[in-house]
């Protein structure tokens, strides 16, 4: 595989991850009161801080992913955020309804898989089709 091809694949992966978070962040912002109510129903502490942080992480994180800006640290932040939302938002172990529990299990493991994608992005970097890639020297791996 060529570095150009690898960079193209990494760019597509960044876009795929970004779409989910951009859409989710904007929907949280548009329905902010409902989102705050949801966090309260889940027993999330410090909702007044957690809600705007979640909107910012998802929206800004999505934008940074598209641009390929600060990609490696963003990969760690987004992985941690995604695992935290899996634990707090998809707590299947607290649900007794079998159908709802099944859905929450799927959503929980989906979040864990997405976190794995962010960890891969942390390791691979953003590829050359990115702001980070444009700033990087062309020696070494250069992905």
Poorly predicted parts:
none
Listing every helix as H and every strand as E from the N terminus to the C terminus, the arrangement reads HHHHHH
* N/C terminus separation: 12 Å
Global mean pLDDT: 92
- What characteristic shape results from the CA principal axes? globular
Q: How many domain units?
A: 1
Count, helices: 6
Beta-strand residue fraction? under 5%
Count of beta strands: 0
The helix-and-strand class reads mainly alpha
Helix content: over 70%
Largest beta-sheet characterization: none
The whole-angstrom Rg is: 17 Å
Summarize the structure.
With 143 residues, the protein is mainly alpha-helical.
Layout of strands and helices, then pairs:
Blueprint: H1 3-30, H2 32-41, H3 47-67, H4 71-89, H5 98-124, H6 131-135
InterPro entries: DoxX (IPR032808), DoxX-like_oxidoreductase (IPR051907)
Subcellular location: Cell membrane
Family: Belongs to the DoxX family.
List keywords for this structure.
single chain, 143 residues, mainly alpha, 6 helices
Explain how this protein is built.
This protein is mostly helical and 143 residues long. It has one domain (3-135). Helices cover 77% and strands 0% of the residues. It contains six helices and no strands. It has helices at residues 3-30, 32-41, 47-67, 71-89, 98-124, 131-135. The mean pLDDT is 92.
């Amino acid at each position: 595989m060529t570095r150009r091809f690898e960079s193209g694949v990494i760019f597509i992966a960044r876009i795929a991850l970004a779409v989910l978070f951009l859409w989710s962040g904007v929907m949280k912002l548009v329905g902010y009161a409902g989102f705050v109510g949801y966090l309260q129903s889940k027993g999330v502490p410090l909702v007044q801080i957690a809600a705007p942080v979640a909107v910012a992480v998802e929206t800004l994180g999505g934008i940074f992913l598209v641009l390929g800006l600060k990609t490696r640290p963003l990969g760690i932040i987004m992985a941690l955020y995604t695992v935290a939302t899996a634990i707090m938002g998809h707590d299947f172990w607290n649900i007794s309804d079998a159908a709802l529990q099944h859905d929450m299990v799927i959503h929980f493991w989906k979040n864990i898989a997405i976190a794995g994608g962010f960890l891969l992005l942390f390791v691979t970097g953003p590829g050359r089709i990115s702001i980070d890639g444009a700033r990087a020297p062309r020696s070494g791996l250069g992905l």
